[in-house]
Structures are given as structure tokens and as C-alpha cells.
Amino acid sequence: MKIMSRIMLFCLVLFAAPIHASVVLYQDLSQFLAAAGPGTTETYEGYAPPGGFAVLSDSTVGSITYSDNAYAVDPAFDGGGYNWGTGAVLLLSNPAPFTPILTFAPTKAFGALFGTVNDFQQDITVTIDGQSFLLSTGPFANWTFYGFISDTPFSTFSISAANSALPILDNVFVGQASVAVPEPASLAMLGLGLLGIAIRRRQAR
């Protein structure tokens, strides 16, 4: 029985380490949508007045809750400076120390068109499910698509950029709500626990 106890101890140590989620980055919209399955897409139409903008900060609009510095902007605002050819857009201003965060029901898929108001490409850092990705947008009025699919549900998306950049998003896709399932480590430890109970009952006979 000492051998069995040692085996169980070894297995517990082996599976005690946290299992980190794996997030896959997509840059092709059609491939992402095929892998993501059903979901909802936020286009930001109808929030801002013609030629103006609407503050979304600290509020829930549709299925998404926005933190500080979030705005729905009409394409005619600022003399057409937000006309990307897709209608209204989401402006995320991130002056330090603020990092815009979007919160939603747990899902395994998130994607959007990414851009910047700058005339040059902008480096941005996107964090999904605790994993960060250093990405680049195109210059003004040029969209770049990025999509993320995780093997475990997540509920937050954050974006940051150097020099108080002004990231722009549109057609934000949030996958269908997903129910968390036990991680492999949790299942393994549960199995070992049941095995230990069985061994003790056998010894007691």
C-alpha cells in the first residue's frame, strides 16, 4: 500500500500545477467565424447622434460592458475623421493609467476590426484570458481583423497602446455564452480522490 500511496502523491503533485488556457489568434475573418460558431456582432450603429459621439464608458450596451474612455462615434464626426467605410465605430481612448476593458458573458470567441486614428500603423497590446498579444493596426481608415478563440471561457478583453494612442474597433464579435467545464487537473484530482476512498474502504474490510 505504500507504493500506491506514493503513486497517488506523485499524481497529485503532477496535476497540481495550473492548466493554462490556450488562445488561438486568427487574422482571417472567414476562418475565425467558421471556428467560432454562433455569436453576436456589435456594429455601434444608432448610439451616436449624426456627426457626434455617445459616451459608452461605465455602462452596458447590448451584451458588452465598457470601462473608462469608450465612445461610439459617428463617421461624420470631426469632419469625417472617423469615416472608415463601415459606419459608426468604437473609440477606445487609453491615456495612462487607464486601459479600456470590455466585459461580457463567458465565451470562447472574440473578434473585431482594429484600427487607429493615426496616419501610421499603431502597435497595440491585447489581453485575452490572461494572455497578451502584441499586434499592429493599419494606418487611418485601414482595418485589420483579429480574432481569438480560447479552449476555456473568458469574459474580458483589454487593449493598450503606447503614447496614449486612440484605438478604433468595429464589428465586435462575441461568441455565444459558454459554460465552464472542469479543467483536466481538477478531473484528475477528483479521480484520485475517489481512488483513495476505494482503497481505504478495501483496507477496512
UniProtKB/TrEMBL annotation:
Domain Ice-binding protein C-terminal: 180-202
Keyword Transferase: no
Name listed for the protein in its UniProt record: Ice-binding protein C-terminal domain-containing protein
Residues making up the signal peptide according to the UniProt record: 1-21
NCBIfam families hit by this protein: PEP_CTERM
UniProt keywords, alphabetically: Signal
Keyword Signal listed: yes
